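Protein fold
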Amino acid sequence: MGKVVLVTGAARQLGSRFVRRIQRDPDVERVIAVDTEEPDRRLGSAVFLQADIRQPSIARILAEHAVDTVVHLAVTGSPPLGGGGRTSVKEANVIGTMQLLGACQKSPTVRRLVVKSTTSVYGAAPRDPAVFTETTQPKALPGGGFAKDAVEVEGYVRGFARRRPDVAVCVLRFANILGPRADSALAEFFSMPVMPTVLGYDPRLQFVHEDDVVDVLELASGEPRRGTLNSGTFNIAGDGVLLLSQCSRRLGRPTVPLLLPAVTWVGQALRTVGFADFSPEQIRLLTHGRVVQTTQMREVLGFEPSYTTAETFADFARSRGPGLLPPEALGRTVDRLRGALL
């Protein structure tokens, strides 16, 4: 008998990719894909169940299929596929996770839990350390949005790990996910013809390629390889950093530096018209930036990303096509302006 893997958030782009990937594992007998909406992507031979993890029915699904591995990918900053606002997102993230963990706690067959989280749990503040490790306490906890959801989710996961020490629990804190198929709020920002930025700030940013995300999820959900440990909390990001100004150059998209109150107003206006999800937490990221250390990812989890931060962004930029200005010309212009100011 092989493993039975249940994947939440399976109708989304990342979830459906992982469902297709995990089926190739010779140790996996069955994959149970769960989401509230029917997927518009193929899921291979996986069993798709249209279910809401906020409902007690998730416990019945775990029991009926004798699930031993749960990969929780339904923690997201985007509204549910069926629509809804911020309240729906928070309910799906927090209430859904609580219900899922409650079902896992009662299940005698569950032996492994993998949770998709985010480096946003560290927040973004002016007095932040240069580099966050997995044990670094943020100077200021996120006050709302997806980042706050992720903090609450991780708290519930830690409680579950204490109650079920027999279950291997792996929390993956992903840096900003980019790639040709990226559909995140940051991808929307980088796709704008002209990008509003905060005057006087040029934050350091880190990215992880969507292909690496699928690879590390597969690694974390499988049996540990020799010398590695598939449990614990791990920062997942590509090597290196990029400044926001470098991102702008490589996209060929000019920036419009604004005072912070003006950026906040622009963000509210963009959210109102549905052009981009320019949330307060994203504004803080684009003001102060965030960089994490990935030593544990390599030495304990045993994962080496195929893409650096720069390579991830280059692949994303190619998928978005040319910007308003040629990157070379934009770079020369920025350099001349910087030289004149200095």
